[in-house]
Each structure stands twice: as structure tokens, then as C-alpha cells.
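Internal QA ticket QA-208
Title: Verify multi-chain structure generation after dependency bump
Assignee: T.L.

Test input:
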Amino acid sequence: MVTTTARPTIAVWKFASCDGCQLSLLDCEDELLAVTERIEIAYFLEATRATVEGPYDVSIVEGSVTTEHDAARIREIRAASKFVMTIGACATSGGVQALRNYADVDDYVSIVYATPAYISTLATSTAISDHVTVDFELRGCPIDRGQLLEVILALLSGRRPNVPAHSVCVECKLRGNVCVMVAHGTPCLGPITHAGCGALCPSYARGCYGCFGPAEDPNPQSLSAQLDRFGVQRVDLIRMLRTFNTAAEEFRNESDRLVAGEGKQ
Amino acid sequence: MTDRPDSDRTLTVAALARVEGEGAMHVVIRDGALQQVQLQIYEPPRFFEAFLRGRKFTEPPDITARICGICPVAYQMSACNAIESACGVVVDGPLFDLRRLLYCGEWIESHVLHIYLLHAPDFLGFEGAIDLASAHREIVQRGLDLKKIGNELVELVGGRPIHPINIRIGGFYRVPTEAELRAFVPKLERARDLAVETVRWVAGFDFPDHAWRGELAALRHPGEYAINRGRLVSTLGLDIAPSEFDQHIAEEHVEHSTALHARIIERGEYLLGPLARMALNFDELTPLAHREATAAGLTAAERNPFRSIVVRAVEVLHACDDALAIIARYRQPDRPAIEVEPRAGVGYGWTEAPRGMLWHRYELAADGTILAARIVPPTSQNQAGIEHDLFEFVAANLDLADDELRHRSEQVIRNFDPCISCATHFLDLTVDRT
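Actual output:
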């Protein structure tokens, strides 16, 4: 095993999330042990008790900010880290728990908990980039472990990660899928959704449900008009946009526009 | 002992490691007597049960998967069972078998993650799997190889290992061909060999003398080691259907936790998970899993939570065997799902997540809109039991110095493979001795 003091220190931090994105790191079964020889895991509670004091070369952050304590914690992590990378829909857009942003959080607390006074939570779930400067965002609910490895290897070799920002449609074409929307009229968010999954859902005969969030320069209004022509109910379209990346800017703006009653053809 | 502890002390583990999610532990000792043990769950609440209201009945398999990245299939399967029961539909035949095959994949990946990466380092004196790997690389690599096959099985049926996309109410979007499943057989046969090696490896660990004396509960269904159907039975005679859960089990909200504590009414704490399943379903193990379990010293009477690592390994072996049997009899169904029409009503469903029974309840409007949802994950049901077990363990080991007591207490908690992300609605250890 190579041991050199020049190995970069990496810390993995969790905020409000399901643990799935940091699990993706442990799911790199073929590469995990080789990667851990090239880095020093300084903080990764899900994997080890041993912790190293900062500063850290790279902080990998999973989860969204939903408490005052976490809002302060992310600022401390930023201050102790040279490079901050956020992973997954919770960290990059607030996640599915950002659905609270449309509701009264006190109502939510009383639906789930018998003694609301024991619960301390913010009214909103927000992306890490709403609080601190983020150096790289990796999308997905969950992230793709191949993309995670690509980003880590790029960081180790000092190059730019190859993570395309085009839409799922491009991945469908690359995979040779028949378009589920054109051929079967299946509602699909692929035209406005960020690539990374390899067009998984259309490959299984279902429409994309947007778990990688908005692609670069999407045109959600055009997609809404097309789905309207297919007879998709507006309420269903709003639900499609308001799921795992409900608070991502382009998805949020379009669902708000539809709620406001615009966009009916 | 040279480092004799004071009679009054407080032990704190502010952030528990090698558990899924965020939690802490607080132990208070006064005048040399153990006063209080708390598992604190500070994982922030995410309010799934609240925002499921108003969603469509087809959405819970995708949405509730996001409660837990380690056991998403469990959420998907319990959600399907509950909603299908509300709609008066039973999924059986090859579609039922495919669901169980998917679930076997999740049991393998989740259990192997816990055995090799989270739990084994405790028994071997390492801080984590990465340290373990620097001393015994071939062992950790065996675990990773086995975990990978579990993940690949989930991917084969579900589309991807975390938050599978191929699960829907009524079945699947696309079902695998017989040839696709048969092609996986050599990998599963290798997984079965690795699982046998795993059982024999963990059976040789040193286990502290300790026993859970309370009630154990698990699903049971004749003719199978119950995973995705059955009645909830216990070592004290509980025998109920999913619709009877509320009449027998009460959830309480306590101040130190965002997870709700569950108790069997009039009896108290109970434990779910591997020890419970072994106690109640030992006779349903496949012949190979039964033989290896017996050789490893396990019986239905096993009550030592430290030995749950051996039970998990036996369950991995069982899941490999079971998956092979399902593939051998699989005939591709002519359609990937049965049609499910919504109707007004209430549906209940449960399945055996890797950590124990996971219960869902949905109330639907006639058009399929969800009016109310309740989800009771295994870790929140186990939390009171884990606290109870920890209390007994700490009380019996008060002569240990703080550091040693803290470390051993963390191990007691890890015995139960608590999934704090799930339970939120869990660990940091503090010991307070004054």
C-alpha cells in the first residue's frame, strides 16, 4: 500500500438525506480500495470512527439544509475546505424534502409528530449552494457512481471532470432507445432533465421522472405545451416537476407558472 | 483495573460512526448506579408522511424509496403491498417471485455492507473497513465482491442499485427475460460460495456474553423465510395481520429523538430484524443455510445481539439460495404489471426490510389521491428495545473505563444495524457520571 503524506484529505459530510449518495462511494466495489490508497479519508462517519481535524482538501457534501444548526455547520465546513463538492438532488436542489417549501412546516410537524414542541426545523429545505460557494455539483437522485468516480479521479489528476450537462434525450439517442414520448405518448421529462443516468427510465419503457434535475438551458414551457397536447392533466404535470428536484430553479419556475394558470394551450 | 472510573460519570458519543444516518448516545451514571441511557436521533425530519398527502397512489414506490438509500426496495415493496391492498389487488405468480428476487438482492447488499464495512471492524479491533483492508485486504475484497453481486441483482430487476426505477404498483415497467436471469446464475453461485465463507469467518469471532430477554417479532408465512408477505408473529404469541398493527403496537414521541418509539401494547419493547427472524423462521431456512447456521452454532433460541452478524451472514446465504431457486422456476409473464384501479379506502402493507418489519398505511380517495400516509420503519420500532438492551449491557459493565465502555456501547448499538435515516421520525454517545 502506498503511503505518502501528499495524499489529499477527503471528508464526507451528511445533511438531510437518505444516505444513498454517500453509499454510492461504498458501492464502487471494484475501485474503492484502490481509490482509498490515493486519498486520506479524513472524515466519513458512515465508514469509519477515525476522524482527522481539518482543514480538508476536498469536502463531499450530501443532503440539504433544514435546520439552523446545519446552516451554521455548512459554513464551518466551507471555511475548513479547499474544494467543496455537493452530491445528489438534496445537496444540489433541496431534494424531495423541499416539498415543504410549498406548505406550512408547522402543519407538517403536527402531521408526523405527536409533540411538535420537540421538533426544531426550518420552514424550508435548501441546496448547499444557497448557503456557501460550491466548487462542483454532481446531480442525481441518487448520483451515478461512475460519474462520482470520474469526478474523484479528475480531482486527483487535476483535470476537469467529464460530466455532460445535456439532456436525457441525448443519452436516449446514444443508447438507441425508441422515444417513449413520440412512439407511445408516455409523459417524459427527458427533454429538460440533466443527463447522467444513461437514460435509464426510457430504457425500461417508462418516462423520465427528472431525478437528475434540470439540464443546461432547458425549455420546460415547450415541454409543458407538448404534454398538454398529449392530454396530460396540468395537475399531473405540476406533480412531475414537484418531486425530487422540486426547488431546482427551472423546475420550480415552470411548476409555479403552471400553478398560476399560465401555459394552457 | 488501574483506571478505576469515578462513581459519577457521563459518557457521550456525539456522532456515532458506522451507522446509517445521524445519531448520538447519552449515558448517565449517579453514585455508581446507571440512571439513564438514551439513543438520541438528531437526523433532521424530512416529513414524508406529510408531503405524501395529495400525491397520486402510483407515486409512493418512487417517493418512499428516498427515505433510505440503503434499503429503498423495502420501502417500495411495503408501499406496493399497502396500496395494492387498498385497491383490492394481490400480485402473485412470477411478478411476486420477481419482487422477492429483487428483495434478495437488497438483503445481500445491505447485510454485506453491514457485516464487512460497518460491523466486523468492531470484532477485529479496527476503526473501519479501510483500516481493516490495509491489514486484511483479501477479506474486505471478498465482502465487496459479494456486496457487488447483491447490487447487480437489484440492478438486474430494478434498473439501478439505489432507488430502483422499475417498480410500480401492480408489478414492473419491464420484466427480465428468462435468458437475462439465467445469465446471472454463475454470479449467484459464486455469491453463495462467498456467503458460506462469510458465515464461517464471522462465526469464529469472539462474542461478549450478553442476551436480549424481551420479545422478538417477525413476519411468518408458511413454506418460506418470510420477506414480502406473511403475518407478524412474536416469541410471546403475537399473531396479527397488517391491518391490526395499530391495535397492538403504539408509537410514542419522546423528547430526545426525531424517531418515534414503538411498544407492543401492555408488554413493552420488542425487537425486529435478523435475531427475530432466526428465532421465528429458523425452520424455513434453505437446507444449505440451515446446515451452515447449525455448524456456526445458531439455533432458534439464539438471543445474543452480538451474534446478529452471524445471523446476517446466514441470511445472505439464504438469499443467494432463494434467488437461485426463483431464477430456476422463472417463466417470463406475458405482461409486466397487472392493472390497478384506485378506489376509496385504506390499505396496509408490510415486508421484512433487512433491519426488520416495515409497515405502511395509506388512505386513498376514489380517484387515487392519497389522503393520509403512515410509515413505521424497523429502526424506530427497535429504538426502545436498543435503549433497553444498551441499559442492560452498560449496567453489567460499569467497571469498564469510560473509553472502553463508550466503545463497547457503540458496538451494542451497531449490533442492531440501526438505520437512522429511516427512523427519523436516531446516534452521538454521551456518558454522564458525576
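Spot checks passed. The two ends of chain B are 20 Å apart (CA to CA).
Status: verified.
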